[in-house]
Amino acid sequence: MIDELKEGLEKFMVDKGFNSVEEVVGKSLGYFSTHMDLVQKMKAAKRTKAGEASRDNEWAQKDITEKTAELTSN
Q1: DSSP one-letter code for 19
Q2: Is 63 left (phi over 0), alpha (psi -120 to 50) or beta?
Q3: Contact at 8 Å (CB) between 67 and 59?
Q4: Do 19 and 13 contact (CB within 8 A), yes or no?
Q5: Non-local CB neighbours of 21 within 8 Å, separated by 6+ positions
Q6: What residues contact 53, with CB distance under 8 A and at least 6 apart?
Q7: So what's the pLDDT on residue 69?
Q8: What is the DSSP letter of 31?
């Protein structure tokens, strides 16, 4: 099993152009995140995709009375 792991690591390093294990260590740290951070990013992406972010901005730019009149007038 250990030999297979070593061979796999060696192949990975050759494929990616690494010369030593020290060059690999720490490369992925910038991609680590907490679960809560990932959940917040997913929620934001869903809001943006659904267009809710732009609707929220529209509401923020108008007085509630103005927006209500806009929605209820024919």
Answers
A1: S
A2: beta
A3: yes
A4: yes
A5: 9, 13
A6: 44, 47
A7: 80
A8: G
- Under 8 Å CB-to-CB from 44, ≥6 apart: which residues? 53
Give the HSE-up count for residue 41: Cα atoms under 13 Å, Cβ half-sphere: 6
Please give the Cα distance from 17 to 11 (Å, whole number): 10
In angstroms, the CA 10 to CA 26 distance is 17
By C-alpha distance, which of 31, 4, 28, 2 is closest to 16?
28
Contacts of 13 by beta carbon, 8 Å cutoff, 6+ apart: 19, 20, 21, 24
The pLDDT tens digits along the chain (74 residues) read 999 999 999 999 999 999 999 998 988 888 888 999 999 999 988 888 877 656 666 666 667 777 778 778 76
